Amino acid sequence: MRYLLAAALAATVSFPAHAAVDCTAQRQPRSAAGVIATENVWVKALTTRDGKALSCILAPGFMDMAWDGKLNSRAEVLARLPKRPNNGIKLSHVKVTLAGNRAIARGVNMATKPDGRLIGRVKFEDIFQYRDGMWRALTAQEVLMR
């Protein structure tokens, strides 16, 4: 999802992906608005390097197919987070399709340097499952926009 270009630039470091985290603050309604709110929390977790919040969103078994074709596990995404570049992320054109306890969010993710210069844009597709009152990301995929 929003990991896009910044993920490819980030170095791997250790993050306790298995640590117990209280995720009650991540609860969202089972609605399209709840999915969009979760997407926004995901972006904030990346830009603030909040591993606890991100670990609440990414379900066990989560996989990310990055813009460059690399497949990243939940553990790999969390491990890279502390060294993530200080780049901005802005989502647009987000559309949500609901199907019971599942949702698909599709949109555009724009990454910018701290000074606002464009790094790149990707189209993304995130698949969520509603569990225990919150949307958990099962998988994410990005495609580089040229």
- The count of DSSP E runs of length 2 or more, i.e. the number of strands, is 6
Strand order of the largest sheet: 2-1-6-5-4-3
State the helicity in percent bands: 10-25%
Q: Globular, elongated, flat, extended or rod-shaped: what is the shape? A: globular
Beta-strand content:
35-45%
Which CATH architecture is right?
Roll
Question: If you had to describe this structure to a student in words, what would you say it looks like?
Answer:
The chain is an alpha+beta fold. The chain has a single domain, classed as Nuclear Transport Factor 2, Chain: A (Roll). The chain is built from four helices and six strands, in the order αααββαββββ. It has a six-stranded mixed sheet. A hairpin with a 5-residue loop joins strand 1 and strand 2. Helix 2 (32-47) runs antiparallel to helix 3. The longest helix has 16 residues, at 32-47. It is globular. Mean pLDDT is 87; it is low at 2-19.
